[in-house]
Predict the 3D structure of the following.
Amino acid sequence: MTLSEFDKDLLQRCLARSAGSWDDFVERFLGLVLHVINHTVSSRNVQITSQDVEDYCSEVFLAIIKDDFAVLRRFRGSSSLATYLAVIARRVVVREFVKRKHPRGKPVQTDGDSSDDVSDQAFGFRVRIDPDPTDQQPSAEKRASDREEVLRL
């Protein structure tokens, strides 16, 4: 699929830094970025929190605007803009997984909010300073207890 006229116009407006263009861009592609994050998490069986999802989302959009929209300037139009951005998002997320050394294990944890509303899922361009207690490995006693439970079943 080639670049749609709508996406071509949006891309040109972003690169020209037209008023409101970035908000339109984020609104258009936020759902895609969140889908890529959730799919990548699921396919790699990585354990992250909803805060991590927000952080990854922020990292993807920061990568897009970095160096005066260099990612968007490199887009050649040989695919849809959504396809191109999905590849960019996946690469950013995987790089962040490696940086943060997320343990494999459980699927995405939410903080009790199961809302599917995209706007509720992202937007605090925050950085977590303190380690997440869910990222810690279980104690040897807990692993032994778990193993005994598995063997019993």
